[in-house]
Amino acid sequence: MVLALWLKWGERLGRIGFYTLFAVAVTVSVQLVGVYLVFATLIIPPLATRRMKRGRLAAAWGLGALGYALGLAISTATDAPSGPVIVWALGGAGLAWYLAVK
């Protein structure tokens, strides 16, 4: 819903609209999955891709998707709590990407 609003009226809303939508999205996300997972998702992929010159956004999205997929798979296989396992998977995938890309 928030993304649809931004894509449709992003230019009209401007910077204040962006930050308002961002605040709403973060608040709702924290209530749903917790502060630990939300902030790890916001911080780890951009940090892991910061040395890239091109394709950084796509790489960060892919890294986030990979971290979530690995975390959920490991969580299911080991019956561990999903949130912390996803954060660890994001961290591991992010570190591996950062070390691999020069």
Explain what the structure shows.
The protein has 102 residues and is mostly helical. Helices cover 86% and strands 0% of the residues. The protein has helices at residues 2-33, 35-48, 56-78, 82-100. α1 crosses α2 (35-48), α2 crosses α3 (56-78) and α3 (56-78) packs across α4 (82-100). The longest helix has 32 residues, at 2-33. The protein is flat, with a radius of gyration of 15 Å. The chain starts with a helix and ends with a helix. The model has no long low-confidence stretch (mean pLDDT 92).
Question: How many strands, which pairing sense, and closed or not: the largest β-sheet?
Answer: none
| Distance from first to last alpha carbon | 36 Å
Integer-rounded radius of gyration: 15 Å
Overall geometry comes to: flat
Beta content: under 5%
Low-confidence stretches: none
Short description:
This protein has 102 residues and is an all-alpha fold. Helices cover 86% and strands 0% of the residues.
Keywords:
flat; 102 residues; mainly alpha
Per-chain topology:
Blueprint: H1 2-33, H2 35-48, H3 56-78, H4 82-100
